[in-house]
Design goal:
Blueprint (H helix, E strand, L loop, with lengths): L14 H47 L4 H11 L8 E6 L10 E6 L2 E4 L14 E4 L2 E6 L6 E3 L5 E3 L5
Antiparallel strand pairs: 1-2, 2-5, 3-4, 6-7
């Protein structure tokens, strides 16, 4: 006597595992990987805006030259290079006492991802093109050292 209630259940054994493997392989894992890569792109976007803010802050508070400001910016975000950073003092040709504002901008940035391009092009990965980022701030002290209340000169901690 056969005690099995469903004779076809043995033939279907493992079908659920195979279906899950196929769904995971072609839908779940690529979606998870794309989400991680897009998170990295958003991180780069945020880092590019923060580095322009840092450069503008250093330019309006410290008497650092453009090379030092660019060096500190590229140390914070190594994806950009010093040639892609532009520091403009307004009005043009001003000194530390006559400047009214500073604008720091980063040229457009290309960020390549590891997401394959399924649109039929020959590129091996998607490339996100960031717009130019810029930050403008009004002039502050523009000096690295200042006189304190007792007349003793102290170093501005932002400029160290």
């Amino acid at each position: 006597m056969n005690t099995r209630s469903c004779p076809r259940s043995e033939a279907q054994r493992g079908a659920t595992a195979v279906e899950f493997a196929l769904v995971s392989l072609f839908i779940l894992f690529p979606l998870l990987f794309a989400t991680i890569e897009l998170g990295r792109v958003v991180f780069y976007w945020n880092a590019a805006t923060e580095v322009t803010r840092l450069g503008a802050r250093l330019a309006v508070v410290c008497d650092l030259d453009d090379g030092t400001i660019k060096q500190r910016m590229t140390a914070l975000f190594p994806v950009i290079d010093a040639a892609s950073i532009d520091i403009d003092y307004e009005p043009a040709g001003c000194t530390t006492t006559s400047c009214s504002a500073v604008r720091v901008s980063v040229l457009p940035l290309d960020v390549s991802t590891y997401i394959p391009d399924f649109l039929g092009t020959r590129q091996s990965a998607l490339i996100f093109k960031f717009p130019p980022f810029s930050t403008s701030l009004p002039r502050e002290s523009m000096r690295s050292a200042m006189a304190g209340a007792s007349g003793v000169e102290f170093q501005n901690p932002v400029c160290l």
